[in-house]
Amino acid sequence: MSRENFYSRDEEWLKDTDEQFPRNNLPEEPTGPDVPPDTEPLDPAELSAAEESVSESSSTPMQTYLKHLYRLELLTPEEEHTTTCLLRELEDKLIALLQKRGIELVQLRSEGVEQRGSTGAYDHGLIIARAEDLLAERKLPQRDRSSMQSLLRRFQEQRKKLIQCNLRLVIAIAKRFRNPSVPFIDLIQEGNVGLMKAIERFKPQMGYRFSTYAYWWIQQEIQLALRRNDDLVRQPANVQDDLRAIYRAIGQVRAEGLPASDENLAKYTGLDLERVQSLLKLPGPTGSLDEPVTDDQNSTRLDYAPADELFNTDELVTNQELAQRLREAVARLPARQRTVLNLRYGLVSDRDCSFRVIGEQLGLSQERARQLHSDALRQLKRQWR
Fold this sequence. Notes:
The protein has 385 residues and is an all-alpha fold. Helix content is 63%, strand content 2%. The protein has 18 helices and two strands. A hairpin with an 8-residue loop joins strand 1 (107-109) and strand 2.
């Protein structure tokens, strides 16, 4: 693929590519199986920059989604700590009530570590479902029932609050991983999954902010989604990383009014010139011909494919002529042979029949139907000469 095609392929995406967010000066956080040492929380300024950039280039659904998020206030560190502590307290009480009624909940298992042991965390969706099932059975004493309803309502309120106040963090992180092969809205959805996983696993006694902890979980889910949507020929991780660096460099070079030449890209990425040139020659992402290309979802890529890629007019005319000659030749066969061919090849009903079925329909043995078929083919060969 030429460099010009490579650039034009990602033209729309590159318009939204921003510069790397600068590292902030937050103190280094504790590390462990759930929080790698390279976790980088985002500050409010970075969130605002990401939102404005996305808003300018988004379609109507995305703008609607962002407008909804703008109405939600971000939590201060103190409010965030209070919310997470209250959420964990309510969760513990809910679990205790459920276990009191003989309902066991399986703890979540750790992810991304060699020792996949218990995390001490529970699936919030399962907790809510079990509590609602218990309330629906109407077997609880009134006192326990009222306590369960109050705990469940407050638990859902605090969980919803923590999710909504961090949705803009998801957008800011998802924007770093924008990729032509995965729709941006899908990256946001995957990031939301990571956010909810972080809420389930976060413990206030860890000693650092929830947003710092959630950063890694959101980033991990987005990266997993990108790997699942890789091209048909999977590219090594180092190739994917270098391609992302080239994508960012193209945006930076163009923003400075410079040509996106191989030399400039090598300079901005720190890669060898030969490496950049070889990566630019890689095939682009594969796409479905049935993928919608308009907002109304009524037009697909197949609708805009050149006609010569779908069929050849000369071949179509030739095939039609051959079909007409075949019909005329079959019509000149004896009635029984003609019927056998029509049934065998579905010339009339578009349904192929076996010799056994043909024999049953005509009151013949399977072998006799096969003989009539052979006789009919010999007759056609003679007519065709």
